[in-house]
Amino acid sequence: MTITADPYAPTPAASDDVRERQPRWVRPALLALLTATAVLYLWGLGSAGWTNSYYAAAAQAGTQNLTAWLFGSHDPGNAITVDKPPAALWVMALSGRLFGFTPFTMLLPQALMGVGAVALLFGAVRRCSGPAAGLIAGGVLALTPVAALMFRYNNPDALLVLLLVAAAYFTVRAIETAGTKWLALAGCALGFAFLTKMLQAFLVAPGLALAFLVAAPVGLWQRAGRLLVGTAALVVSAGWYVALVSLWPAQSRPYIGGSTDNSLLQLALGYNGLQRMIGHGGPAGGGPPGPPPGGHGGPGAMGNLFFGGEPGIGRMFGMSMGTEASWLLPAALIGLAATLWLTRKAARTDAVRASLLLWGGWLLVTAAVFSFMDGTIHPYYTVALAPGIAAVLGISVCELWRVRERLWARLVLATMSAATGVWAWVLLGRTPEWLPALRWIVLVGSLVAAVMLVVGAQRRGRTVAVMAAGAIVFASAAPAAYAVETVATPHNGPISMSGPSKGHAFGPGPGGPGGHMVDNAALAELVQGRANRWAAATIGSFLASDLELNTGASIMAIGGFTGGDNSPTLAQFQDYVANHEVRYFIDGGHFGPPGHRNHGAAGEITAWVKAHFTPVEVGGATVYDLQQSA
């Protein structure tokens, strides 16, 4: 049988008829996928404790004080915010207010966001390429190891991914009818994604805009005008909060952590913007120049591992990031190129090609930025790649399968299967002591499936369906095993990685190279129950976070995350002490560049305290009672 055109791809007008005639197995299969995803993400949730104590302390502060909730303050006394906008904290703090603040209630919204992202991805892919493609895409996302990590973690990335997938779904709906409403919803989703993780939210925008501009079923100027509507919705949904922070009197809100001028916009363009891209200029907040702790030039191989490795085209496949999300990346890239070629003669409004532009743009732009950015980057950032990989894979596999009568389509599918098996063999070889037989099972199974796809996939019947299912099973076996291992192993700390191969945290805390430097139990007894605005102050957030979570007390993190922010100034701190707003200064338990403790406001405050107050030892830390001068 020879096919000379591409009639298999449904037009936007025909897609509703296709959905109405979907097989009976679709709903049970979707329910099974979402149930399995929920079990995977909810199993043992909270068993690792507070995961990232920095964000956990801020979420707890939001349950104690509404101003802290609104601004994402690290402490209920509202000294300084975390170094990200607060949207993810809003959700976790609301869950804590409703159900009581525990590790489980804090992480519950994150896990449910994962289930929601899988459901939305299924819906978006199904609309262009059918339910089988949607199920493949949803399954790939659910089983991506870094997704299994971050949808059980309290970093902002879970909400970011959910909002980005929602924006893509709304764009798919907008492309079908050129609907302004759907495009405005996509803009709103991107705007709130900006309030989750700032400029990273915009990496998917080129793919979304290109797909609509090419395929929406109206004239060019109408397409451009409706894109402007979506852009306006984005600006409004993100800008209202930027305006709120800018107009709110600075003395009655916390300092914007990570910024150099107490500005949310500067935080977006600086620490969370250009500094992430170009990498020079030193830490935010006026600290001493140099890389972040463990970054390029940091503490040896461990720093390089937890900070993404060297920039370049191979970073997504390297030792740091390879096992997070790249298991099916080679197959997705092959499938993207082949399916774009397959749809080259389709109508401008073809739904399949539009979706390939959308998800392919998402994948390529995000991967390129992550590969070549020279600033701070962590392996878990790759969770933002997972929906793009999953969608491209689901669409390309199903579209190529539909034309499997063509030899070249079978060869492409076989190449995708073989490449997946070989790459899984390489990745699993990085942890040779962990399930050593799996790498050989996956390699041999994928190669056999590749041969069978070439030889017999053009036939019809149950045998061919079993063959296709087998290829999918072998392709997903390695990332699925990694995802299960990730769920089964407690992960915590400010930087964590999926799977069995690395330490589970970078920084103080269980598994982190810094460890706990003081006896928190003794300090907790000291600060608990204090009526001051801040029971204590310390340089940086690490010890402060632990004490807040253990006691519920308000602890000032001088200088923010690692102590480099210029807040509070020495004059402000002296006023706090004079007004009895802060009781103790704890000198110990620091983590991060040593210069942050001796430079800027943190250094000035430390020197002033040592000159005017008497030290005592508490649990291995040097403590100064700021109500008892020397």
From TrEMBL:
GO terms for cellular component: plasma membrane. It is a multi-pass membrane protein. Coiled coil: none annotated. One of its GO terms (molecular function) is pentosyltransferase activity. GO terms for biological process: lipopolysaccharide biosynthetic process; response to iron(III) ion. InterPro entries: LipidA_mod_glycosyltrf_83 (IPR050297), RgtA/B/C-like (IPR038731), YkcA/B-like_C (IPR056785). The keyword Cell membrane applies. Residues 83-238 form the Glycosyltransferase RgtA/B/C/D-like domain. This is Glycosyl transferase. The lineage of its organism: Bacteria, Bacillati, Actinomycetota, Actinomycetes, Mycobacteriales.
